[in-house]
Amino acid sequence: MALNWDAKKVKDIEKVDRAVLDNIIFGTMFVGIYEITEKNYKEFYARYHFIEKLNGSFLNNRYITEDEIKQLIGLRTNASRKSRSAFIKQYTDRFFKDLV
Question: How many domains in the chain?
Fold first, then answer.
């Protein structure tokens, strides 16, 4: 299934760095949050940053900031939703599988 996205509700979308936008769009798939809202942007950031810490930066050797995630409130994709516990289990299981 193709990843579809909609940024019509993002304020000042023209000011968003395109590389950041592209990374966050694809990031919705691996963090398990398909829409960035005022209520969940910190959770989105925490999950995204957790993956960056495990794997390294996805964007020109720098981490995406919380403010960059907040700037994308209103972004929506068709990615699947994962609870926090399912997200943590997936990445901790993968981390230990890679090491053991």
Answer: 1
Got the DSSP string for 13-81?
GGGS-HHHHHHHHHHHHHHT--B--TTTHHHHHHHHHHHHHHH--SBTTBPPPHHHHHTTTT-EE-PPP
What's the predicted TM-score (pTM) here? Answer: 0.92
- Structural domain includes residue 88: yes
Structural domain of 84: 6-99
Q: What is the pLDDT along the chain (100 residues), one digit of tens a residue?
A: 799 999 999 999 999 999 999 999 999 999 999 999 999 999 999 999 999 998 899 998 899 999 999 999 999 999 999 999 999 999 999 888 888 8
For residue 53, being part of any structural domain is answered with yes
